[in-house]
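DM from R.C. (forwarded with permission)

"hey, sorry to bug you on a friday — could you get me a structure for this? deadline for the figure draft is monday and I only need the backbone to look sensible"
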Amino acid sequence: MTQKHTVPDGLVIVDKPSGFTSHDVVAKMRGIARTRRVGHAGTLDPMATGVLVLGVERATKLLGHLALTEKEYLGTIRLGQNTVTDDAEGEITSSADASAVTREAVDAGVAKLTGDIMQVPSKVSAIKIDGVRSYKRAREGEEFDIPARPVTVSSFSVYDVREAVAEDGTAVLDLVVSVVCSSGTYIRALARDLGADLGVGGHLTALRRTRVGPYGLDAARTLDRLQEELTVMPIAEAAAAAFPRWDVDERRARLLTNGVRLEMPEQYAGAGAVAVFGPEGRFLALVEEHRGKAKSLAVFA
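My reply, with the result:
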């Protein structure tokens, strides 16, 4: 009798290659893990590389909650050129000599884009406007506005400023930057807005995501390596790393898994998703505090 292939429930942290969409990576992982139950937490643009969190089997139920966590990036912003996509994938729409832009002006512009800000996402993005993807409207030449939305840029640092000459002969400045930000922040929109503030235009030429929540590049594996050896972070370990932990005894564990709303300790009020563990470290559920009681978000036991 042939043994049925089983893949453990858990997360796979992929170091996404450039040129792949997030959906391409999911499709590849379905083949590697031999299961249809694969999803991702938060997309990465095709140009970008780095940490993409995938959920396999029951861990797909964690993904919507993981997508909301803080993210960290390393990137290169080119000052002196605008593009239609706000990154190097799109055609150049305008050029301006950026050689006179000073480091002080750059730092002042970066400071304005740090903290709690209102950001207009890039027009060529997956944002839905009246139910239609923004990039679809843009490709059809439609004139439309995307409303600004609040995002938090916890840290925006410039490590290096390099003088360069673009292919069209424009004197440009390439900034090597790191950004720590909330979910939903567009790094290419930061590049666009910094360039606009400095009066020379700007776009993103390289982007590498180095962290999603608690999961960094140290835990990430390339698709080639995963093809050789599938490394899955067990669901309990993944949940313990990403969410506040609440340990309950056997009686509470039984009540919780039977749908009873338990009283929650005050320390979890307003904490968002909380991972509940039973005896022997069994991961039972994700819950959130609602009027003092545990409201189930997803049950795993």
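R.C.: lifesaver. The mean pLDDT is 90.
me: no worries. The domain at 71-205 is CATH 3.30.2350.10 (Pseudouridine synthase).
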